[in-house]
Amino acid sequence: MSKEYLWVGKLDKNTKVVVFNPLEEGETDAIISHSLLVKKVLLGPCKDSQELNVIEIETEGYLDDEIKTTLCCLQATNDKKFDQCSIDLLVTHNEAKFSLVEGSGPVTIFGQHLAEYLEDEIISEDGDEEAEEEEVSPELTGKKRKEKKLLDYQKRLQKWKFLMKKKTMKRKMRMRKWK
C-alpha cells in the first residue's frame, strides 16, 4: 500500500538549501520505501526582475554515484514578477538536496512524497497501526515479526514479477506465431 503527501521546499536569500530526507523526519517501521516526485518550481514574486535564479539538485544515483546538476534556471521579467518550470523528476530511496546557487528567490519547489507501506499494515489517520486479518505466530515479537512480514512481502513481489515475465513471454510467442 502506498500513500502520497504534498512536499514543499522554499529557497530564498536566507535559506539557500532545502533537503528532502524522510528518514530524518521520523521513520515508521511499516514504511519500506520513500520517493519524491518533483513536479513544479516557482519563482516569485521578485523585486529584482533581471536576476537569474539557478536551482541545483544533489542526490545519489545508480551504484551510489553522486549526481549534482542544475535543476532549472528561472528569471522574472519587467512585465511579470513570476516564473515557473514544470518538471517530472523522481528521486527514489535517497536524500535530495536542493540549493539556490545563484539569485535570491524566493523559489518554491512542489512535489509528491510517496511512501510505500508494508501491505498487511494499515496506518490510520491518527497514526495507529492496525494489523490485517493475517495472523503472525504469537512467539514472534517485535523485530522478528517485522522481518517475517518483510520477507513475506518480498516473496509475493518476486512471485508477481515471475508471473508478469511469464505473461510477457507468452505474448511474445503469440506474436512470433502470427508473423
Automatic annotation (TrEMBL):
Keywords of the record: Nucleus
Domain Nucleoplasmin core: residue ranges: 6-114
Cellular compartments annotated: Nucleus
Alphabetized InterPro entries for the sequence: Nucleoplasmin, Nucleoplasmin_core_dom, Nucleoplasmin_core_dom_sf
Pfam families xref list: Nucleoplasmin
UniProt entry tagged with the keyword Endoplasmic reticulum: no
Domain of life: Eukaryota
PANTHER family named in the record: GEO09167P1-RELATED, NUCLEOPLASMIN
Family: Belongs to the nucleoplasmin family.
Protein's name according to its UniProt entry: Nucleoplasmin-like protein ANO39
Gene coding for it: LOC106459383
